[in-house]
Specification:
single chain, Spore Coat Polysaccharide Biosynthesis Protein SpsA, Chain A, 2 domains, alpha/beta, 10 strands
Length: 266
């Protein structure tokens, strides 16, 4: 039985050329049972005009949201997705024409809940990051900490957890929402598998983590781990990357703990 695949695309509508490239790559998919759920948080008319150009070739669901935030957009989009499988997308990534077919084949006749794959930097002809070179089941939560959202496809019926709206672009903590989602799914004992196949293209980031990203990392660790693990992570950054992230990391760690206390006291 063929599965329907939903590509979930949040956008502010500020990258028309990149969005067009994304849609072009979805038009050419060899597997045709797909829908594209676009959640716009700005530039609504511009996005609508662009999507109209593709309406004859793609099954597009268009949603407007007045609320900003990547996790908010994804949660809104999840309510509109009708696919059996959800693929997390960005408006500036794009796909090879076999992506939907590979994802469908990975979930067919299996008990897989989450499928993780590789991002490739097409411009510089290199992997987006360091990946394992063989298929592996994720049996350790630390194997999820470096994942990016556009590597993730998941079964809608078994992975019903929303994204934490404290995390992600436009939120209190500017990133980490996808790792938080994966850790939550791991905690629910979902079947998570990585395969070293390229499903998506995105230019590689070369800059070190900025201050706000490290704060978000600290908050993520405060949510899921303890202070000792946080210290070890900061030591690793210092030794391997030559980045002294202690101050920003524990600022985020403490901020999240304070938010938790405030919620309890309401």
């Amino acid at each position: 039985m063929e599965m329907k695949i939903s590509f979930l695309v949040p956008t502010l509508g500020a990258r028309e050329n990149e969005m067009r490239r994304l849609l072009d790559s979805l038009v050419t998919q060899t597997y045709e049972k797909i829908e594209v759920v676009v959640v716009a948080q700005d530039n609504y008319e511009c996005i609508m005009t662009l999507l109209d150009e593709y309406s004859d070739n793609l099954n597009i669901v268009y949603v407007q949201s007045k609320e900003r935030g990547l996790s908010k957009a994804r949660n809104i989009g999840l309510m509109k997705c009708t696919g059996d499988i959800i693929v997390l997308s960005d408006d500036d990534c794009w796909y090879n024409n076999l992506t939907a077919e590979m994802i469908n084949n990975s979930f067919q006749n299996s008990n897989l809940d989450i499928f993780l794959s590789k991002i490739y930097d097409y411009k510089n002809e290199c992997d987006y990051k360091k990946y394992a070179n063989k298929i592996k089941n994720i049996n350790n939560v630390f194997g999820l900490l470096s994942r990016s959202s556009i590597e993730i496809a998941f079964r809608r019926e078994t992975c019903k957890k929303n994204f934490d709206e404290l995390f992600g672009l436009g939120a209190h903590f500017v990133c980490g929402e996808e790792v938080d989602f994966l850790i939550n799914m791991y905690g629910e004992k979902k079947n998570i598998t990585f395969s070293p196949v390229v499903t998506v293209y995105h230019e590689r980031k070369t800059k070190a983590s900025n201050y706000n990203q490290v704060i978000a990392k600290g908050a993520l660790y405060a949510k899921h781990f303890n202070c000792i693990i946080g210290i070890l992570i900061c030591l690793k950054d210092l030794i391997i990357r030559r980045e002294n992230n202690f101050k920003a990391f524990f600022r985020g760690f403490n901020e999240y703990k304070q938010i938790e206390r405030d919620i309890v006291n309401i």
